[in-house]
Amino acid sequence: MVAATRLPPSLPLSPPEQRMLIHGVSWKDYVILREALDTPGLRMTYCEGVLELMSPSRNHELWKTTIARLIELYAFLLDLPLLGYGSTTFRNEAKERGVAPDECWRVGTQMRDGEIPDIVLEVIHTKPILDKLHVYDGLAIPEVWLWQDGAFALHRRLAEGGYARVERSIALPQVDFEIVARFVTREDQDVALRELAAAVRGA
């Protein structure tokens, strides 16, 4: 893990996400369900006939939003060409994969229809039933960031497939995740952003 931190005692844990796994789901049925149930309160992950449904918790949404704001401010301060695409859904019928990351980004180039991001973020508040790295491997996502238990774990996809843990982001090596991790669980996002800016400028 990179940059482990303790959760501040003032931040109570919200109830865990509700997760459900459905087996034997065809690609056609997944697409129909995805279009019919496309709401902010429901996340779907599809992999090789298995569908996971998840209702994110308050803390899940807080942390993923805070991370996105911190990372994008960090990139802005360093004049890095980072473009955010939020929780866009990515689907590939041939690979039997469908997933909407918590956040995703391209570095230096815009993402066109049918293209994939350079980086995806997954906040793990309760353990996913499906292996998210296996899902993203099938989509050939170059870099996956996991936030879990107060720490970042960064994963870079190998040329032959699969992921390897890395200490620094390959796409954004300038970002110090020890600095970012200090502020992820803060409720006062506005203050946290100002403090991050001061830390980056002083680094």
Question: The CATH topology, please?
Answer: tt1808, chain A
- Mean pLDDT, rounded to whole units? 91
Helix content: 25-40%
Characterize the main sheet: 6 strands, mixed
List its traits.
5-stranded antiparallel beta sheet, alpha+beta, tt1808, chain A, 5 helices, 6-stranded mixed beta sheet
Outline:
This protein is of the alpha+beta class and 203 residues long. 28% of the residues lie in helices and 27% in strands. The protein has one domain: tt1808, chain A, CATH 3.90.1570.
Structure description:
- This protein has about 200 residues and is α+β, with helices and mostly antiparallel strands.
- It has one domain: tt1808, chain A.
- Helices cover about 30% and strands about 25% of the residues.
- It has five helices and eleven strands.
- Strands 4-7-8-9-10-11 form a six-stranded mixed sheet, with helices on both faces. Strands 1-3-2-6-5 form a five-stranded antiparallel sheet, with helices on one face.
- Strand 5 and strand 6 form a beta hairpin.
- Helix 2 runs parallel beside helix 5.
- It is globular and about 55 Å long.
- The two termini are about 20 Å apart.
- The relative contact order is 0.19.
Give the arrangement of secondary structure elements.
Blueprint: E1 18-23, H1 27-36, E2 43-47, E3 50-55, H2 58-77, E4 82-84, E5 90-92, E6 97-99, E7 103-107, E8 119-124, H3 132-138, E9 143-148, E10 151-157, E11 163-166, H4 177-181, H5 189-202
Parallel strand pairs: 8-9
Antiparallel strand pairs: 1-3, 2-3, 2-6, 4-7, 5-6, 7-8, 9-10, 10-11
